[in-house]
C-alpha cells in the first residue's frame, strides 16, 4: 500500500520503517531539513534498538523515502499518518498546532479520497478538529476531494519500539460509522493484516473511544507505578520489603506482575505528559481527576527520593562530597532524557554543593544538552559534573553510588571493585537492582526503595 507518514520523530520513524519492512511503499515527511538529511545520509536521529538496520534495508530497497516536500507527501499516500509531536501546552494540555498544521497541508494538496490516520497522542475530539481543518482547506480551493479521519494510537515503548510495533499485543483503531468510515476501515484492515495472521489483535471502536484508550492505558500504568512507589515509601518506614510484596500481589492474575516496580519515579515522553493532559479535558467537562492528581504528585515526590535518602545519610549540606551516578536516561535502551529522574537528582546534589561523576551507556551527549538547559541559571554547576567513560570509572573517590536507570550493564558489577573504588561503600539504588542481604554480606551499605527490612540488621 502507499503510505505517507507526517513527522519522522520517534513514533513516525518507527511506524514508517516497520510498515516499509512489511512491503508497503512509505514516504516520510518532516519539515526539519537537518533530520531528513541525517536520514538520507544513512543515519538515524534517535537511539532505538534494531531501527537503524530496518531503515537502511528499506531505504536501499526503495520502499522508504525521506523528504521535506509537502505536496509530494500528500500526493503519495492513500493513507496519511499524522505522527507529529503534541508537546504539553502551558496548562499541560496537548499542543495541537503541529497536528492541525499537518491536517491543513493535507487539505491544501489532496486529490481524490484519503484515509487520515491520527497516530499522535491527542485529546478526545481531535480527529473532528483534523477533519474540520481539512474541510476548510478543501472549501477554500473548491475541491470535492473526500476523506475519513481514523484514530490509531501507538503503544510503543522506547527501547522496544520495533518489537512492540512488529508484535503488538493490540491494535486500536477508531473509525466513523458512515460510508467514508467504512472505506477507511477496509483500508486499515488491509494495512494491518500481517499483524492479525495468527489471531485477531485489532480492536475496532469509534474514534473518540480510540483517542481516549491511549490516555487511559498510560494513566493506568502510571497509576500502578505511583501506587507501588507510595507503598514502597511506607514499606521503608514500617520495615517491609516491597519486592516481596510485589511478588505476593503480582501473582494474583487480576493484578499481574507488570509495572509494579517501585523506584525513583517514572519519566519519559508519555506518562508525565499524558497524565497531565487528561486534566484539561476533564476540566472542560467539569470533572476533577482525583486519582490522577495523586499519581502525578506521588511521582514528583518520588523523583526526589534518592536525593532525600542521600541527604538523610550525609546531611543537607553536601559541600566536599562526591557522588557517582549510574544511569541518566529515563529508562534503559534509550538516550531519552525527557522527565528523567536523573535530572532531579543532579539538581539536588549539585545545588547542595556536591560534585558528581556520571555514567550512562548512550545518553551522555543528550545529558550534556539537557543539563545545559537545566542549569542555565547556575552554569557554574555544570563544572561539577564529570562524565565518566565506564561505570567503574565513575566510582573513584565517590562517597556513594546512586543508581537511577536499570541498564543491564549495571546488574552484575564486580562488587569487590565497586567497594574498593568507592571512598565509602554506600549504594543508593533507585531501581532495586540488588538483593539487600547480598549487599550486606559483601560489606556494602545498601539503600533501596522500600526494602528497609533486610538492611536493618
Ligand atoms: C510508555 C508506555 O509503556 C507505552 O505503551 C506508550 O506508548 C508510551 O509510554 P515508555 O515511556 O517508552 O512507554 O516507557 P515505559 O517502559 O512504559 O516506562 C516509563 C517509565 O516508568 C520509566 O521511567 C520506567 O523506569 C518507569 N517504570 C516502569 C517504573 O518506575 N516502574 C515500573 O514498574 C515500570
UniProtKB/TrEMBL annotation:
The keyword Oxidoreductase applies. Pathway: Nucleotide-sugar biosynthesis; UDP-alpha-D-glucuronate biosynthesis; UDP-alpha-D-glucuronate from UDP-alpha-D-glucose: step 1/1. GO terms for biological process: polysaccharide biosynthetic process; UDP-glucuronate biosynthetic process. Keywords: NAD, Oxidoreductase. It is an enzyme of class 1 (oxidoreductase). Substrate binds at residues 155-158, 214, 259-263, 267, 331. Transmembrane segments: none annotated. The keyword Disulfide bond does not apply. One of its GO terms (molecular function) is NAD binding. It catalyses: UDP-alpha-D-glucose + 2 NAD(+) + H2O = UDP-alpha-D-glucuronate + 2 NADH + 3 H(+). SUPFAM superfamilies: 6-phosphogluconate dehydrogenase C-terminal domain-like, NAD(P)-binding Rossmann-fold domains, UDP-glucose/GDP-mannose dehydrogenase C-terminal domain. Residues 324-436 form the UDP-glucose/GDP-mannose dehydrogenase C-terminal domain. Its EC number is 1.1.1.22. The active site is at 270 (nucleophile). NAD(+) binds at residues 30, 35, 86, 121, 158, 273, 338. Belongs to the UDP-glucose/GDP-mannose dehydrogenase family. PANTHER family: UDP-GLUCOSE 6-DEHYDROGENASE TUAD (PTHR43750:SF3). This is UDP-glucose 6-dehydrogenase.
Amino acid at each position: 500500500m502507499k503510505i505517507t507518514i507526517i513527522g519522522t520523530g520517534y513514533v513516525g520513524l518507527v511506524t514508517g520503517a516497520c510498515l516499509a519492512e512489511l512491503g508497503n511503499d512509505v514516504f516520510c515527511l518532516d519539515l526539519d531539513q537537518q533530520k531528513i538529511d541525517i536520514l538520507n545520509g544513512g543515519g538515524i536521529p534517535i537511539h532505538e534498538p534494531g531501527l537503524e538496520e530496518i531503515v537502511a534495508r528499506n531505504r536501499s530497497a526503495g520502499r522508504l523515502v525521506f523528504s521535506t516536500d509537502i505536496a509530494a507527501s500528500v500526493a503519495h499516500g492513500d493513507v496519511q499518518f499524522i505522527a507529529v509531536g503534541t508537546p504539553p501546552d502551558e496548562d499541560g494540555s496537548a499542543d495541537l498546532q503541529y497536528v492541525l498544521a499537518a491536517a491543513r497541508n493535507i487539505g491544501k494538496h489532496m486529490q481524490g479520497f484519503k484515509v487520515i490516520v491520527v497516530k499522535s497522542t491527542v485529546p478526545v475530539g481531535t480527529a473532528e478538529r483534523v477533519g474540520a481543518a481539512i474541510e476548510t482547506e478543501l472549501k477554500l480551493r473548491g475541491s470535492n476531494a473526500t476523506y475519513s479521519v481514523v484514530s490509531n494510537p501507538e503503544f510503543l515503548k522506547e527501547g522496544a519500539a520495533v518489537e512492540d510495533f512488529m508484535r503488538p499485543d493490540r491494535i486500536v483503531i477508531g473509525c466513523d460509522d458512515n460510508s467514508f468510515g467504512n472505506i477507511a476501515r477496509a483500508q486499515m484492515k488491509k494495512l494491518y493484516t500481517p499483524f492479525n495472521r495468527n489471531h485477531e489483535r485489532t480492536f475496532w471502536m469509534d474514534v473518540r473511544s480510540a483517542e481516549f484508550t491511549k490516555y487511559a492505558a498510560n494513566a493506568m500504568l502510571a497509576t500502578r507505578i505511583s501506587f507501588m512507589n507510595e507503598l514502597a515509601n511506607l514499606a521503608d518506614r514500617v520495615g517491609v520489603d516491597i519486592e516481596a510484596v510485589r511478588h505476593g500481589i503480582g501473582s494474583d492474575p487480576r493484578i499481574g506482575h507488570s509495572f509494579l516496580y517501585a523506584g525513583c519515579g517514572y519519566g519519559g515522553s508519555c506518562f508525565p505528559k499524558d497524565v497531565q493532559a487528561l486534566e484539561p479535558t476533564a476540566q472542560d467537562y467539569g470533572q476533577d481527576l482525583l486519582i490522577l492528581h495523586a499519581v502525578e504528585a506521588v511521582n514528583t515526590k518520588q523523583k526526589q527520593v534518592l536525593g532525600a535518602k542521600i541527604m538523610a545519610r550525609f546531611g543537607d549540606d553536601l559541600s566536599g562530597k562526591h557522588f557517582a551516578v549510574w544511569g541518566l536516561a529515563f529508562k534503559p535502551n534509550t538516550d531519552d532524557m525527557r522527565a528523567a529522574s536523573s535530572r532531579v537528582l543532579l539538581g539536588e546534589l549539585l545545588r547542595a554543593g556536591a560534585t558528581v561523576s556520571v555514567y550512562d551507556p548512550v545518553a551522555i551527549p543528550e545529558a550534556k544538552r539537557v543539563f545545559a538547559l537545566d542549569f542555565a541559571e547556575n552554569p557554574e554547576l555544570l563544572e561539577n559534573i564529570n562524565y565518566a567513560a565506564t561505570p567503574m570509572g565513575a566510582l573513584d573517590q565517590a562517597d556513594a553510588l546512586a543508581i537511577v536507570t536499570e541498564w543491564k550493564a549495571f546488574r552484575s558489577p564486580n562488587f569487590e571493585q565497586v567497594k574498593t573504588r568507592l571512598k565509602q561503600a554506600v549504594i543508593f539504588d533507585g531501581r532495586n537492582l540488588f538483593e539487600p542481604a547480598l549487599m550486606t554480606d559483601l560489606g556494602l551499605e545498601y539503600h533501596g526503595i522500600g526494602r528497609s527490612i533486610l538492611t536493618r540488621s
